[in-house]
């Protein structure tokens, strides 16, 4: 499949590109700085340099793709709105180019999955320390759900640097309390790559955690 990744130089995006290439997909990486990519010379990798907030640049990358993956992050900028604003730009570009399938990485705790969180994540991290990040994810999800595209929103727990285990929980009830609220970046990418050719979670918001 032809897949474009926004947030391609981020910690999820890098794993996502690597694993999609391993599966034989044709991958486009949209980024500002190609030197941050792990294997920029891979024969099945196309690089699109641009700004995710500039629609004509995004349209060029989206045109002709089968699937669009959003794994946008803001680094250490806790008050950035790049997730919601960038997602809006990507959605507009998809509509302009006729591309329908969208997979967007958000966070466990958004929407009804707030019920999965413990006190620390609900009140300390998302209620105070990462409040703006959390609100930006909530707005991002709103844009996706209102997009009229064929969307899936993936809600992973806190990221860890572990290996790809392929052994994790997904699609659990928002009332489930026996999840560890963490998952490796490699396993987040594993789950997203599995959705490229799947409709199991079409128009759904699966949680993802050990």
Please describe what this structure looks like.
Helices cover 35% and strands 20% of the residues. The protein is of the alpha/beta class and 210 residues long. The strands form two sheets. The chain has an eight-stranded mixed beta sheet, with helices on both faces. Strands 7-9 form a two-stranded parallel sheet. Strand 4, helix 3 (82-97) and strand 5 form a beta-alpha-beta unit. Helix 1 packs across helix 6 (185-195), helix 2 (55-62) packs across helix 3 (82-97) and helix 4 crosses helix 5.
Keyword list:
single chain, 210 residues, Rossmann fold, eight-stranded mixed beta sheet, two-stranded parallel ribbon, 6 helices, 20% strand
Number of strands: 10
CATH superfamily: NAD(P)-binding Rossmann-like Domain
Q: Count of helices? A: 6
Please write the CATH class name. Answer: Alpha Beta
Main sheet overview: 8 strands, mixed
Runs in which pLDDT lies below 50 for 5 or more consecutive residues are none
N- and C-termini, Cα separation: 28 Å
What is the approximate shape?
A: globular
Given helix and strand content, the structural type is: alpha/beta
Domain count: the total is 1
Mean pLDDT across all amino acids: 96
Strand order of the largest sheet: 3-2-1-4-5-6-10-8
Give the topology string: H per helix, E per strand: EHEEHEHEHHEEEEHE
Looking at CATH, which topology would you report? Rossmann fold
Residue share in helix: 25-40%
Question: Taking Cα atoms only, what radius of gyration do you get, to the nearest Å?
Answer: 16 Å
